């Protein structure tokens, strides 16, 4: 007899977006073809045989908004942080003219701390958001993951987390709070930290269960911020 699968509690009180996703919402209501670009590091690119969140989000979005051709383009590059991602924002994001950009930041600032100035990481995020601010696309920042390799440097993680939230608030951009969500799963939900990652040293990347549940929470947060779309189920309330 196997244990029942753990539920994926999205904790909407943590991950619900503050700002609407107007461009994505309008496109979902008016056209069939929708494009989302996910830019980031290995959490976005995928590693160690765990399917990353972009293709999972694509599948969930197509199921939710039936009949629409929703493509989630994966522009993840392992080992990068916001300064390198800023350098490819023009070709990898802006040139694609998406309705939604998901920019995952912060992990390598902590994990590869000797290579990055936190001030430079914060500045790169702010500059990138300023480039995107007046374009017809919504932007979501995704912060770092709560796994052993990062929790081992929790003071640094909390520092960069605060900076990400500050930049997002200043730019009036939504932040998908992956760090807080996973932390609650662990500290209040009883999910062992050792089961959050993929089991591969240095225990940096999220495993199958966590990646699946993170994507589900992101899908719910997006749907809630989009609001009612004709032909789609009502926005989640959980």
SSE topology sketch:
Elements: H1 12-15, H2 22-30, E1 33-40, H3 42-45, H4 53-64, E2 69-76, H5 82-87, H6 89-92, E3 100-104, H7 107-111, H8 118-132, E4 138-142, H9 148-151, H10 154-171, E5 174-176, H11 178-187, H12 208-226
Parallel strand pairs: 1-2, 1-3, 3-4, 4-5
Note down, in words, how this protein is organized.
The protein has helices spanning 12-15, 22-30, 42-45, 53-64, 82-87, 89-92, 107-111, 118-132, 148-151, 154-171, 178-187, 208-226, and strands at residues 33-40, 69-76, 100-104, 138-142, 174-176. By secondary structure, it is of the alpha/beta class. The chain has a single domain (12-226), classed as SGNH hydrolase (Rossmann fold), CATH 3.40.50. Strands 2-1-3-4-5 form a five-stranded parallel beta sheet, with helices on both faces. The protein is globular.
CATH class category name: Alpha Beta
State the CATH superfamily name.
SGNH hydrolase
Low-confidence stretches: none
Counting DSSP H or I runs of 4 or more residues, the number of helices is: 12
Integer-rounded radius of gyration: 17 Å
Instruction: Based on the coordinates given, report the CATH architecture.
Output: 3-Layer(aba) Sandwich
Total number of beta strands: 5
- What does the main sheet amount to? 5 strands, parallel
The overall pLDDT average reads 95
Gross geometry: globular
Describe the strand arrangement of the main beta sheet, using strand numbers. 2-1-3-4-5
Strand content: 5-15%
Number of domains: 1
CATH domain fold name: Rossmann fold
Order of helices and strands: HHEHHEHHEHHEHHEHH
Kindly, what is the distance between the CA atoms of the first and last residues, rounded to a whole number of angstroms?
A: 30 Å
Helicity level: 40-55%
Structural class: alpha/beta
